[in-house]
Design goal:
Mean pLDDT: 82
Low-confidence stretches: none
Helix content: over 70%
Strand content: under 5%
Number of helices: 6
Number of strands: 0
Distance between the termini: 59 Å
Oligomer: single chain
Radius of gyration: 19 Å
Largest sheet: none
Length: 177
């Protein structure tokens, strides 16, 4: 028999506003990755390190989404699996660093944690708001919005950890987050 009786479905049309939003989200996430990475090393905060790595993961997520936008569904599905595997690997790294910091027991600088956590919250909330209208698309479109929304929630946790470190003088609130 012949391979198919019907032509392959065309790639979906891509909204230029979605592409533009992804580029903006990518720029914000790369910038915040660098800011939080520096702040995490200067303050000794594992929660800021985790958040900076999350910003890196999100930047990679947005870059991959930009690369596959408009490609066939099979390619976009594989891209979603790659994203999940990468985020899992980053999570394992952060868990290892958290255990190391817990063992060391040195509290981070709470003021830096709180200030940078506030900036990160503004960045993630802004990106989530910008991507909100695109949240109903395929797995890649949903994932970019979900990443930003969940990260904004995580930033609140970093700020609460900063209060915990400030109030107790111990590292455990930072490590817990």
């Amino acid at each position: 028999m012949s391979a198919h009786c019907c032509p392959a479905p065309a790639a979906p049309a891509v909204d230029p506003a979605y592409r533009r939003a992804l580029w903006i989200a990518l720029a914000v996430n790369v910038t915040m990755f660098l800011v939080e990475l520096g702040a995490s090393w200067n303050s000794g905060s594992v929660s800021l390190l985790a958040d900076s790595i999350d910003f890196f993961g999100d930047a990679a997520n947005y870059a991959l989404s930009l690369a596959v936008v408009g490609l066939p569904l099979s390619v976009r599905s594989r891209a979603a699996i790659v994203k999940a595997v990468c985020m899992g690997a980053l999570g394992l790294f952060v868990l290892g660093r958290a255990l190391w910091n817990l063992r060391a027991g040195v509290p981070p600088v709470a003021i830096t944690m709180g200030a940078v956590g506030s900036i990160a919250l503004a960045a993630n909330a802004g990106v989530a708001w910008m991507l909100y209208r695109f949240r109903q698309g395929d797995a890649n479109m949903r994932s970019v919005w979900l990443c930003s929304r969940n990260d904004a929630i995580g930033n609140v946790a970093v700020m609460l950890a900063a209060f915990g470190v400030f109030g107790t003088g111990r590292a455990w609130p930072d490590v817990l987050v």
